[in-house]
Amino acid sequence: MSGVEIRELESFLVLAQELHFGRAGERLYISQSRVSQLLRSLEGRIGAPLVERTSRRVSLTPLGESFLVSLRPAYDALRATVDEARAAARGMGEALRIGFQGTVDDDLGEAIARFGDRYPDCAIDIVEIPLSDPFGPLRREEMDCAVVLLPVTEDDLVLGPVFSRQPQTLAVSVRHPFAARESVSAEELADCRLIRIDGGAPEYWRQAQAPDLTPGGLPIPSGPSVNTLQEGLSLAAANRGVMLLCRSTAEYHARRDSVTFVPVRGLPDSELGLLRHRLRPSAQAEAFALAVGETTGTAN
């Protein structure tokens, strides 16, 4: 196994997670054929197949399963060692400033704890980002990285990892007709006044969080506009409108005396992504991105 390349190991690890050459290539930012080439090279070094391929499915061979169990902790340790060396070279004395939208859920909390254990001398500051300005604080250098709702198509920002895929729910007043429902369809949003997001967020982003039309093309009436999550929840509690939220945020902000959260069928799931500035790389942010990827199982 002399001369093994780290890219071969990375390709195998990602393919073992995805069990799909196309998706593995997307995560690695290489072509499907390149993933196959790297895997064949690794199998040639080992001397036996690690993956079974058919026209319908991809699966690990027994040797591949055994190899994965042994490789994963060794690879993670290697990545951590390299990251620690890089951080030491660049300096990790300054604080890591993390912005977030919604809530710090279990995965994000674990990633913060992992980073803190790995770099105990690096202080960690956590600041909530207003819904109305998801990208501004990072561009103004008020933070090193930011956890924001997707989609993100900003050229000056680096996206990844992407994690916390969640169904969407509708925050409604306990007095609202939907409050007693087990779920509502996306088309029924046409019967609501949907709370919008104010401020300087790009239109494509605001539309993703509070669309003007249902998937079937029905117009959704506009409710009041807000800058923050708490403003939106307060207006929903007052029955001034309804607000779309991901399930984890809804569960965290459960206020059964005034607001209830009803699952919405027929909308794309909500996702979070970690953002860093492309032109102002930060050793702290890069190390935290690795911690998030490890915690959420999305590390490349």
TrEMBL record:
<keyword id="KW-0804">Transcription</keyword>
<keyword id="KW-0238">DNA-binding</keyword>
<comment type="similarity">
    <text>Belongs to the LysR transcriptional regulatory family.</text>
</comment>
<feature type="domain" description="HTH lysR-type">
    <location>
        <begin position="4"/>
        <end position="61"/>
    </location>
</feature>
<protein>
    <submittedName>
        <fullName>LysR family transcriptional regulator</fullName>
    </submittedName>
</protein>
<dbReference type="InterPro" id="IPR036388">
    <property type="entry name" value="WH-like_DNA-bd_sf"/>
</dbReference>
<dbReference type="InterPro" id="IPR005119">
    <property type="entry name" value="LysR_subst-bd"/>
</dbReference>
<dbReference type="InterPro" id="IPR036390">
    <property type="entry name" value="WH_DNA-bd_sf"/>
</dbReference>
<dbReference type="Pfam" id="PF03466">
    <property type="entry name" value="LysR_substrate"/>
</dbReference>
<dbReference type="InterPro" id="IPR000847">
    <property type="entry name" value="LysR_HTH_N"/>
</dbReference>
<dbReference type="Pfam" id="PF00126">
    <property type="entry name" value="HTH_1"/>
</dbReference>
<keyword id="KW-0805">Transcription regulation</keyword>
